[in-house]
Amino acid sequence: MEPKLGGILASRDFVYVSLGRKIEDSYFVCMCSTEWPEKEPKQDMVRVEVEEGSGLSFSPDPEHKTTRTLLRWVISMDMKIPLVPTLFLHQLHVEGCRQYVLCMRKYLSMRQELLLPAS
């Protein structure tokens, strides 16, 4: 899609590098934008920037170690959407992340039901 309304309506892409590590019982993934040969920004897209310090951590819930995982999701991106208040964009992003977690929880629950023998 060709950017319209000064870039408010546009296809977006991003190129980032990520690194994951396991430290004790937890997994950490950090990410940030990068440049890559032959992956230059395209004229018909807006390049999103993933800021340094963005990432995820997964650790066992201290109260339910074998059945629950704590997810910490720290992400800072410049979506390059002009004229839209940052607070509004943050609210949309938080809701998108919440919906992702809810859908993932539902998926994993259904998958677990399929893998467990019927009682």
Automatic annotation (TrEMBL):
InterPro entries: START-like_dom_sf, START_lipid-bd_dom. This is START domain-containing protein. Transmembrane segments: none annotated. Residues 1-113 form the START domain. One of its GO terms (molecular function) is lipid binding. Pfam families: START (PF01852).
